[in-house]
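Deliverable D5.2: sample structural annotation.
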Amino acid sequence: MVVDLPKPNPALKRLERLVGTWIIEGRTLDSKDNNVSGRVTIDWLPGGFFLQQRGEIEVMGLKVHALEIVGYDASTDTFSSYVFSNMGEVVARYYWDVQGDVVTHWTEEFRAKYTGRFSEDGNVLSGGWRPEEGVERSHENTYGATMTRVK
């Protein structure tokens, strides 16, 4: 007996450009020198239904190690994710979208959003995190970051 396995939603292909190993460099807006650095690896879990991001980022000396799992909800056309980190027991909820060269990544909890743009060859993603209007800026929600694919 042959079992037809489910297939990933075609919308997940929009995330394919994120797959790889990336070096992160950037700075908080009040800094003249880079004070944001890190490395992440993004790849598909077996079956292709979920994307995982593993890595670490250091912002002004604070090191965050995290695992993020991204999935697709066809009923809302959203890519939601859960982030597990060394920053506490609470799992953080985030959202993603990729439309052409533009990537957005946001969290309602911290009321901040990353907006970035891929280079023409797709190997550099440049952008920054900004708080929602009315939210005080801090080094945690206001910084520029460039991700460069190394693999």
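Annotation notes: Strands lie at 20-28, 36-44, 51-59, 62-73, 78-85, 92-99, 102-107, 112-118, 124-131, 143-149. The first strand starts at residue 20 and ends at 28.
The annotation will be released with the project's public dataset once the embargo ends.
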